[in-house]
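Final report, closing paragraph on structural work. Over the funding period we assembled a curated collection of sequence-structure pairs, and we close with a single example.
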Amino acid sequence: MKSTDFIKGPVWKCILAQSVPMMIAQLVHLLYNVVDRIYIGHMEGTGAMALTGVGLTFPVATLIMAFAALFGMGGVPLFSIARGSGNDEEAKKIMGNSFFLLLVSSSALMVIFYIFRGPVLFAFGASPESFIYADEYLRIYLAGAVFSAVATGMNGYINAQGFPRVGMLSVIIGAAVNIALDPLFIFGFGMGIGGAALATVISQALSALWVLAFLFGRRSFIHLERRYMKPEKRIFLDILRLGTSNFVMQGTTFLVQIACNSTLQQYGGDMYVGIMTVTNSVRDIFMLPVSGITSGAGPVLSYNYGAKRYDRVRAGIRFNTFIGLGYTVIAWMAVLIFPGFWFGIFSDDPSLATEGIGLLRTYFFGFAFMAFQFAGQSAFQALGDAKHAIIFSLLRKVVIVIPLTFLLPALGLGAGGVFMAEPISNIAGGSACYITMMLTAYRRMKRTS
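Its predicted structure, as stored:
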């Protein structure tokens, strides 16, 4: 796809041209973690406890991705708007500054978490038994923090230039290696949970190298150049302003994961932390298509917004809404009708399944409302409306999920109350986000088109 194609042809075709390769890429990227969990969950004798240990490391991985979203994906809409207005020099500065910030932040996180990983894991809800597995996984996983941040944060600049297939390949290459190495390291070399972490680090390194090779190479329209990596206060503040919404979305997930794991440890113990690990894994699978559609739409919406083609922006928002809602309804039904199948992918432990299947149904109740959250949030972000993007990121998780995670179990609902907080937030937060977007950004573009 050429750089001018975002303003030609039906908007839905532009979005799908971007989204389908991105969905494939995200599907393969999901395999980084999901395949690890599948193999770990089926380790003979220790699978359930090892799966709990991996679940305890989720907040660390999430925080690394939060900074990748802040400094990487946070700059992509600004990059697309600059390109749409014909200012390639500004686009180069944005991308260069973004890369520099990714390197600094991920390196700092790697060192901090490695030094304090013991206290951190116990604060996240580890027991003496599960800590052994969590610590072994995390020590190795942190070695790939920089690779993970660069691969995720900079891949958006490939997609934003109209090369979604290249962006897809950057993920596929690494994930294919991860899938191949997982069984070899875990079972063949007898490395167990540490083998899963090592396979992930190697695969992330390959993805990062592919991304950088393309952005430094001749095929990209906007090249990554060393002279533009010098940090500039103005650009840093612009990336920070818009990227904060991405950071809040991921960062609040970090806080939710800590709240859930610590509360579940208090009211149910390691088994319920393991059930939440499986539940989060199933959710990751079903969130992928709707996330891919809205992520693919972002560069298209931003580009047309920069080109003042507001009619096309509004058409893109409508498309995101309808296709997202249709998909999430189908996904919701699939979990409600066949919960045992999805749960069994990650664990064959009968005790986990007995307690977990009902909790999985509870967690997914109201899943369709996530389509409204994604459509509204992505629209605010693509149009550079950082204020509303941040507000609704905070509303759903910090204002609704986290308080309910502590409150509902204390009211007598026990560990099950933790799983009830998610559907309540989906319905309330998703509705509020979408309605506000339609009454503000969408209506404003209608008046000016």
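The chain has one domain: 7-448. The mean pLDDT is 88. We thank the funder for supporting this effort.
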